[in-house]
Structures are given as structure tokens and as C-alpha cells.
Amino acid sequence: MTRVAPRNLRDSVYTAVHEGAWSVSDVVATVTSEMDAARCDVVAVLWDLAAEGVLSYDTIACHFRPAVPALVH
């Protein structure tokens, strides 16, 4: 495997969460099985996407999900 470009890593992390890998360990396992990415990079991207509002993090269930867009009235 070759090192992955940051943009591809972001896309892969988002896709993994969108397809149901919501826990950190599930996302890491999914992404690292598809590309040469370090666990710390995958986790960092998860938190970056959450900070940007692309993903939401449920502190009770301890998992990520795609963010629900706010309704505009």
C-alpha cells in the first residue's frame, strides 16, 4: 500500500461513517483495511469532520454519525 492523500482519507472516513461504521474502532478498522493510514490520522480526521459540522458525535453512545443539516425556515 502507498501512503494516502489527506483528501482521500477525509473522503474514506466520511464514507465509512455514512455507511454505518460509527464507533471509532469501526471507522479505524474500515479505513485502514482500505488504505495505508495510521490510526491517529483516522481519529484526527473524525474529530476534524465533527468540528466542521460534517459529522456529529454522540457523547452518550460514544459514536459518530453524519450530521443532520439544520432546517432553514
Description:
The protein is mainly α and 73 residues long. It has helices spanning 6-18, 24-34, 39-51, and strands spanning 55-58, 63-66. A two-stranded antiparallel sheet has the order 1-2. Strand 1 and strand 2 (63-66) form a beta hairpin. Helix 1 packs across helix 2, helix 1 packs across helix 3 and helix 2 crosses helix 3 (39-51). The N and C termini lie far apart (48 Å). The relative contact order is 0.19.
Q: Indicate the percent of residues in helices.
A: 40-55%
Q: Tell me about the biggest sheet?
A: 2 strands, antiparallel
Count the beta strands. 2
Q: First CA to last CA: what distance?
A: 48 Å
Which assembly state applies to the chains in this document?
single chain
Shape type? globular
State the helix count. 3
At a glance:
This protein has helices spanning 6-18, 24-34, 39-51, and strands at residues 55-58, 63-66. The protein is mainly alpha-helical. Strands 1-2 form a two-stranded antiparallel sheet.
Keywords:
two-stranded antiparallel sheet, 73 residues, 2 strands
Summarize the SSE layout with pairings.
Elements: H1 6-18, H2 24-34, H3 39-51, E1 55-58, E2 63-66
Antiparallel strand pairs: 1-2
Helix pairs in contact: 1-2, 1-3, 2-3
